[in-house]
C-alpha cells in the first residue's frame, strides 16, 4: 500500500491530509509534527486566542476523530531529523525510521530572532517572547496583566495585532519600529497612517524610525527591565514581544540535497527538484503564473491552496497552482484584506475616504491592477481579485470615483 509521509503538522499539512482522502488517495497517510498539538490555525494566536476569547480546542483544524475516521496517523511531538531520498526513508527524533513513497514537506517557518549587536542573549530572558505557536501564546498569556508595560519590537501584522489586544486588556503598550512607518513593507502610506492613527487613538505609543540597540536587566538579573534605543531613550518593560518576521524551515530539505532558494523550490504542481518530494505552505518557493515570478508566501490562503494542489497531483488529477495571493489582518474594528503584490506599481489610487475607516488603495502598473489593500470593504476586495487575475484594463479616475460602481469596470 503506498504511503504519503507529511513532515510538519501545521495548517498546510492538516489540510492536505484531509484533501488527500477527499481526492481519493487510498494509501496510508502519516503526519509527523514537532509540536504537541494536532494541526491548528495560527491567525487567532495574535487575536482571539491571545485575548482569551477562544480556547485551544477551537484552534484545531479538525478534532482527533476526523483523522481517525479518515485513517490518517498523526505523530505529534516528533521531529523528522533526516531524509534519505535514495532509500526513501525519513528518520524520526525517537530514532525510528519510516518508509515513504511520496514525501510532502510542510515545515512552515520559525520566528526570526533578534540578532543585532547589543541584543545578544535578550531572548533567553523569561519575559521576552516570540509568537509563532500555541506554546508561545500560553507563556505570553501568563504574563499578560493589566497595567504591565509591554514593549513590542516590530510593527508588522503580528506586532500590531498583539498591540490591539494588549491595549484592550489594559496593558501599557509601546510599539517600536525601525522603518519610517508601520506595515511599511506591505502597505501603502495611507494605510500605514490609518493604523498609526487608530493605534494611537486607543492609547498605544507607536514609535517609528527607532532602532533598539540594547537592553538592561532588572536588579536580580533574571528579566529584561528596559530597552535602549538608538536615539538615547530608555523604555521600561515588564514584558517584551518580538515580531520581526519569519525564517522558512528549509534545513531538512537542503540537507537532503533538494533545491532551496528562499524556500524549498517547487513547480506549479508543488513538486520539488525530486518528483517524489513535494513542499507546501510557508516553506515553499513556488511559481505564480499570474505574476510570472516565484513567490514564497506566508498566509493561510496560500497554505490551503498549495495543499489542494499537492493533493490533486498525488491523486493523479494534477491542476497547476495559479491564484492571486491574498491576506487579511484584524485589528480593533479594522478589517484589512489585501490581494496581489504591489511591487513595481507606477500608480496608487485611493477610493473612499482615507481619513475614515473604509477605503481601498489600488496599485496599478500600466493601467492594470497589481494589488489592492482594502479596509472594511469586502466588496472592493472581491472585485480587486478579479481585476488582478483577469488583467482588466482600468483607468485611475474611474477607480477613484465612488459614483462609478467598481463592478461596472469589469469587462
Ligand atoms: P506552520 O503552520 O508553521 O506549520 C509547520 C509545522 O511544521 C510546525 O508545527 C512545525 O513545528 C513543524 N515542523 C517544522 N519542521 C519539522 C520537522 N523537521 N519535523 C516535524 N515537524 C516539523 N495568515 C493569514 O493568512 N492571515 C492571518 O491573519 C495570519 N495571522 C497570523 C498570526 C500569527 C501569530 C502567525 C504566527 C501566523 C499568521 N498567519 C496568518 C500565517 C499563517 O498562520 C501561516 O501562513 C500558516 O500557518 C502556514 O502554514 P504551514 O503549514 O506552511 O506552516
UniProtKB/TrEMBL annotation:
InterPro entries (UniProt xref): FAD-oxidoreductase/Apoptosis, FAD/NAD-bd_sf, FAD/NAD-binding_dom, FAD/NAD-linked_Rdtase_dimer_sf, Reductase_C
UniProt cross-references to PANTHER family, sorted A to Z: APOPTOSIS-INDUCING FACTOR 1, RIESKE DOMAIN-CONTAINING PROTEIN-RELATED
Organism phylogeny: Bacteria, Pseudomonadati, Pseudomonadota, Betaproteobacteria, Burkholderiales
Ranges in a coiled coil: none
Domain Reductase C-terminal: 326-410
Domain FAD/NAD(P)-binding stretches: 4-307
Protein name: Pyridine nucleotide-disulfide oxidoreductase
A molecular function GO annotation: oxidoreductase activity, acting on NAD(P)H
Keyword Oxidoreductase part of the UniProt annotation: yes
The entry's keywords: FAD, Flavoprotein, Oxidoreductase
A GO-annotated cellular component: cytoplasm
Cofactor(s) required, per the database record: FAD
